[in-house]
Design brief:
Shape: globular
Number of helices: 10
Helix content: 55-70%
Distance between the termini: 53 Å
CATH class of the largest domain: Mainly Alpha
Strand content: under 5%
Largest sheet: none
Oligomer: single chain
Number of domains: 2
Structural class: mainly alpha
Radius of gyration: 20 Å
């Protein structure tokens, strides 16, 4: 009779059900395993439905929303059905919602000369683009490891453009206490990023 090995595992032998259950329970390392297993699928699904100019932001925003909402969409997944197919449907709705909001807030741009001006301003080289993509991915992983309050502070500050007054009111903090909390959250995020990507932060 064959017995299952008790040797350490890198998580590749977890089923999707086991992996999602570990993620929902907050098992350390579960987010990284989920990210590695499904990042290509998620990126591909976004690429097929969005403009390339929006793909990176959408990819990052999808994981931010997933973590911020405590993996709500994964709690709705019916066990026994295909997780990749379910994720494809979730991403489709996510991209549709993005386009709807984008159309609502977009204003007409100027003529061709204005577009040419923007195109000529600091075009990213391929190397720079790859580095930025890698740093965004590492930054997302570092952000996911912060506690709930730090996640809220960083997301509100850099992605929602929430005012300090609104954040202080939400967290019931004074203005001075909020500034301190923001500063410490940024330090913890940077420490986490340096741990994940030391090659980008030489001593």
């Amino acid at each position: 009779m064959r017995t299952r090995s008790l040797a350490p595992t890198n998580g590749d032998d977890f089923s999707d059900i086991e992996l999602v259950d570990r993620l929902l329970r907050g098992v350390p390392g579960a987010f990284d395993l989920f990210y590695r297993r499904h990042e290509r699928l998620i990126y591909h699904c976004i690429c097929t439905r969005a403009d390339m100019a929006d793909v990176t932001d959408l990819f990052q925003s999808f994981f931010e929303r997933l973590v911020e909402r405590d993996y709500h969409v994964l709690k709705l997944w019916q066990r026994g059905t295909s997780l990749p197919i379910y994720l494809s449907k979730v991403i489709r709705n996510f991209v549709i919602d993005f386009h709807r909001k984008k159309r609502w807030r977009e204003n007409p741009v100027g003529g061709l000369s204005e577009l040419e001006t923007h195109e000529s301003e600091g075009e990213e080289t391929l190397t720079t683009a790859l580095i930025l993509k890698d740093l965004r991915r590492m930054g997302l992983q570092a952000w996911a490891k912060l506690d709930g309050r730090d996640k809220f502070l960083m997301c509100s500050k850099f992605h929602r453009d929430l005012s300090n007054e609104a954040m202080a009111d939400r967290l019931k903090l004074t203005e001075g206490a909020l500034r301190t909390a923001l500063s410490r959250a940024q330090v913890r995020l940077l420490v986490g990023l340096k741990t994940l990507a030391p090659e980008y932060f030489p001593a």
